[in-house]
Amino acid sequence: MRLGRIMGVDLYLNAFFLALLGLFLVAGILGKGLVAFAVVLVHELAHVACARYLGVPVNEVELLPFGGVTRMGSELVLDPVKEVYVAAAGPLCNVVMVLLGLAMKNYGLWHDELGPFFLQCNLLIAAFNLLPALPLDGGRVYRAGLAGRMSIKEATYRAATLGQVFAVAVVLLGSLGLLFGFTGLDILFTGLFLFFAATRERGMAPYLFMGQLAGKKGEILRAGVLPVQSLIALEDVPLGKIVKPFLPQKFHLVLVLDRQWQYKGFLTETQIIDGLLNHGVDLPVGRLPLQPL
């Protein structure tokens, strides 16, 4: 559901969050629901502010029960340092709000029921988002760390799989809590949505990888200088296998050998990507025009 625009960004309320607010209404604690809504909103606006400061375009914000999704330009995922900064801005903002809440309590600006819930909500969202699982903020930091050692596709698969595992654990704990009466439906809803969101992130991995390949020329133009990573491949290896170990923030040179381990030539990353886009993933690398050293 579209709520409007804030800071020039379209704001949406996810159906799961809307259902959660409905549960608060039915339970007669709508005030707590509105506090949770405000905490999640400020958390996401912190991501927006940090992204804009770093020059990353922001498309829209969707509020979820455990935080939200701030949809930004795909170049953020391809810059691990920026992704870490933007991801960390949300939980850091929650910590700041906890400190502000404690300061307000010390100055007498306090509500005996909503005040403690405000602190609890901030701490819960900050702690939950630090889990190393997509789509949580900790998962984005974890993926950024992995991106220095493997392709963005494989890094996304790992972080999203952890998200699915955590989601199943939350659903199981929420179901037990509901059965024995010490939790409500909110925990179960959160686990279900976390699984849905992690599965969606996993499905985006191939597109992120293609974006990484297609955007490498622009990456070189922006950086001016990139470190070189050398690879060796046999001439009959398909291009689809060659590009799998390609990493962001590095430029790759591939030395091609025949089956007798004799050197045949080399290819740059841009030549391999162009060959893949023009001829497909199954073309043997030795079929491309090789360059002598």
Automatic annotation (TrEMBL):
Its main location: membrane. InterPro entries: Peptidase_M50 (IPR008915). One of its GO terms (molecular function) is hydrolase activity. It is a multi-pass membrane protein. Its EC number is 3.4.24.-. The keyword Transcription does not apply. Keywords: Hydrolase, Membrane, Metal-binding, Metalloprotease, Protease, Transmembrane, Transmembrane helix, Zinc. This is Stage IV sporulation protein FB. It comes from Desulfofundulus luciae.
